[in-house]
Amino acid sequence: MIYDDMPVLKSLKEYAASKVLPFHMPGHKRGGIFQRLGLEYLMDNIIEMDTTEVPGIDNLHSPQGAIAEAQNLAARAFGAGRTFFLVNGTTSGIYAMTMAATKPGDKILIPRNAHRSAVSAAVLGKLHPVYMMPEVDSYMEIAMGIEPKTVEKALEQHPDAKAVLITSPTYYGVCSDLEKIARMVHDKGKLLLVDEAHGSHFVFHRSLPISAMEAGADMAAQSTHKTLPSMTGSSMLHVKGERVDIEKLKFFLQLVQTTSPSHVMLASLDAARYIMENYGHRLLDDCIKYSNKVRKEINDKTSFYCLGADKKDSFGIHDIDPTRITVNLKGGGISGIKGEEILRSEYNIQVEMSDICNIVAITSVADDEASYMRLLEAISDMDRWSRKENIGCNQAKPPNSIPVCLMPPHEALYHEVESIEVEKSQGRISAEMAVPYPPGIPVIMPGEQISRDVIDYLRQCTDIGIKVSGVLDPEFKNIKVIK
Ligand SMILES: Cc1ncc(COP(=O)(O)O)c(C=O)c1O
């Protein structure tokens, strides 16, 4: 087989042939939705359409034709003043909006559990990140929303901060109170940036949480590819109001993106907008109905718990995305990681991700009733035959406070570093980050001082099998510190 000699192509071909039911991104779920809605041309001609900026094909970095028109249509559909298409994911949107809102040396307020691109943006922009602690649900063992009062306090303590970045919704589908936060941030004359990677669909249905644009954010970056039918890595950055310097933003968008964008990805963004404008409400009706049915059945008939509206108004949760299926398996004695493995090996279903207690399934307008029911049956069946083991959830107690920051992350990363035993690192400045899952909150960041509490907590986490991501040594015996 010629494909044996092309490992990437081979792996993709095999995954497609396996007919795994995808409850993961991208939201087009293998493109079936394009076929159903008469857009099969996009599906069938990807390589033929792949081209560069020849006459008749617009330029992403100074659009005047089709791309400008498509971005305007998107701005209207997503309730923005301006919309920029992105070919390097929300990651690039977070970089560009953060740097457009600040200048080197500025402070920015970000949630401690923000996606790593927010911290990377602070590194690129030479910023001083000031972290705000999200609320943690001790049963689900995950970080939830940011309370407006946490933002208020951070704004009072750091009146010189230039902007506030909020992640809403989170990976688990949890939304913070963006309207309230927007009012507070604007009252202090600062910019509100929202990492809305998982919320591109919100604006298309009134039963979904309010979108960041509607809530009053100045900029919001959305991974269209996660929850809407566009290609992996295609995203949008929306801007509203007069507070953002658009020319500066355009400069940074050019800086963080390739000069050879994929026009097929751009076309898929255009198609996603078209589908949602024309069919979105009806398709989301189904998506919400079937997701809620799966949630209710799991909660009524299994020993698992599916995150839902009952958690609203606790743990910083202002709203919940009903289309996100986040299931805590510990009541059934299965770890999230094991649950993900079982769903794949026994039921040919792949979920988006798992942590020690939870699995997360991404649903989208491309899923049909049969897919939801297959997921529900698999989860219910898994509950019936699972051995009720006592899974090792995170009994470790995290340190009460965020470590002292002795240098901003960009300085720490350019410093000379050395690798030393974790046990001997007390008092040293970390050159890496350590993020135990759960709850997904970094315990130490580059530039922060390692305390005894931090060492003890991370040691307990690794002892009970909690995955500590971000660290270079997977066994966590050594840590890189500033020399
Ligand atoms: C909360 C959050 N923000 C940002 C990103 C980055 O998005 P992208 O993959 O589109 O660059 C992710 C990716 O998983 C995410 O979960």
From TrEMBL:
Belongs to the Orn/Lys/Arg decarboxylase class-I family. The keyword Iron-sulfur does not apply. GO terms for molecular function: transaminase activity. Gene3D superfamilies: Orn/Lys/Arg decarboxylase, C-terminal domain, Type I PLP-dependent aspartate aminotransferase-like (Major domain). Keywords: Aminotransferase, Decarboxylase, Lyase, Pyridoxal phosphate, Transferase. This is Aminotransferase class I/II-fold pyridoxal phosphate-dependent enzyme. Residues 372-468 form the Orn/Lys/Arg decarboxylase C-terminal domain. PANTHER family: ARGININE DECARBOXYLASE. The lineage of its organism: Bacteria, Bacillati, Bacillota, Clostridia, Lutisporales.
